[in-house]
Amino acid sequence: MRTRLTELLDIEVPIMLAGMGGVSYHELVAAVSEAGGIGTLGASTMSAAQLVEEMALVRQLTKKPFGVDLLTASPASVEAGIAAVIDGGARIYVAGLGVPRDVVGALHKKNILVGSMCGKVRHAIAAVASGCDFVVAQGTEAGGHTGTVATMALVPQVVDAVGDKVPVVAAGGLFDGRGLAASLALGADGVWIGTRFIATPEARTVGGYKEALLGLTEDGTVISRGFTGKTCRVVRNEWTQHYEEHPEELRPFPEQFLVSSRAGANHLGPSEGVIADMTKEFMPAGQGAGAIHELIPAAILVQQIMDQAEQVLSRMSGLRHS
Ligand SMILES: Cc1cc2nc3c(=O)[nH]c(=O)nc-3n(C[C@H](O)[C@H](O)[C@H](O)COP(=O)(O)O)c2cc1C
Predict the structure, then answer these.
(1) Which atom of ligand 1 is nearest to the CA of 136?
(2) Domain boundaries, the chain
(3) Closest approach atom of ligand 1 to CA 268
(4) What is the pTM assigned to this prediction?
(5) Does the Cβ of 43 fall within 6 Å of ligand 1?
(6) Which listed site, 132, 143, 177, 244, has its alpha carbon 20 to 30 Å from 290?
(7) Which homologous superfamily is 4-202+292-319 in?
(8) Alpha helix (H) residue ranges in the chain
(9) pLDDT per residue over 102-123, tens digit each?
(10) Which tens digits make up the pLDDT trace of 62-96?
């Protein structure tokens, strides 16, 4: 399938693995890139040294393009991260928080494409004005830090605002080929999928997180500030319930991150092998989690999404003639 996104990134299918901090490490990133999409390392929970190592490991597993996602919250870590991205052979850099104004020029000089996560139309306009090459329009359904506008409403409005200048990628609550076809119908050029890829053997998580996703219903997530201090969609549990009832105890970002980490409720990061207490653990997840019933290798997942999208698109084009 060819879209403006596949052309821009030189990939075969318009599926991007979200750069999920603590989850998207080299195994998952390389699997998605090898399958024809593009994998993005979730570097927000990595040290600069670990990012360098992860990028080298990706390059050992695939020659295809891959990316890095960094939160643009702490300037010191961003500087080290950008240097690693430039040296490590990434094709794309995605800014998870805020418009990456100060780094676009340096990345472009090294032929690295820059994307920006956007929860509002004005974020997308600012990102494009700063020179970003594509934007990800992320609806409130998304797992992780998220805004208030739903994917269905946000994507076409972002497309109207900036779609004539750059490709728009849809995100939030998308988990299969129907979501890809719907995103294309809304004017997007591809999808950026997070939660569905957590339920793969290649994803790294704390013990119990993948199983928790398999048991979730469509309303099993909640937007909480209890783990990081910012609004984050996560699996609902006793920890989120506590902060719903005691919002006065919340600390601002990123202090609340330390609060949850110190309390043993936040293992996002290098925590494989740890079995967490699910009644309080930080498990970012989107509203599509209710549709996840089994772990599927990432390459098969990419293929299934593409096959289903093709079926939906041909069924839809058949509607015109009946
Ligand atoms: C476990 C997890 C960690 C995430 N970490 C980040 C991150 O570090 N940076 C970022 O830009 N987005 C992050 N996100 C958001 C994703 O990039 C993506 O927008 C979201 O997962 C899409 O919605 P979906 O989960 O419904 O597919 C995270 C999401 C999850 C589920």
Answers:
(1) 19
(2) 4-202+292-319, 209-290
(3) 1
(4) 0.97
(5) no
(6) 244
(7) Aldolase class I (3.20.20.70)
(8) 4-9, 26-34, 48-61, 75-88, 104-109, 121-129, 151-162, 177-185, 195-198, 209-214, 238-245, 255-262, 298-319
(9) 889 999 999 999 999 999 999 9
(10) 999 999 999 865 566 777 888 899 999 999 999 99
